Amino acid sequence: MTSTTSITSTMKSVQTGPSGSIDVVTIDRPVPGPRDVLLRVRACGICGTDAAFLHMGGMPLGPGGEMIPIPLGHEPTTRERRTGKPWPRRSEVRATAPGLIR
Description:
single chain; 102 residues; two-stranded antiparallel ribbon; 1 helix
């Protein structure tokens, strides 16, 4: 089922800010490919690993181990928004990374 609702080209993302803070930022909305589905997140849990990254101020993936912001939450409650192609009615959706659902 492909949604016919108009979807904007940007969306909100919750990510780590400076140590101990959370930022809500506007990011480009991903465009689903032929094996992807775009989901609308209704609610999202933050796990213990997310909490550790929150206290660290991100993840040490920048040059020289510099902390960079990362998106938080990978335990979403969702509703289908748009697919790259028609999906069988009872398809399995697996989360592989925040922002990337396959």
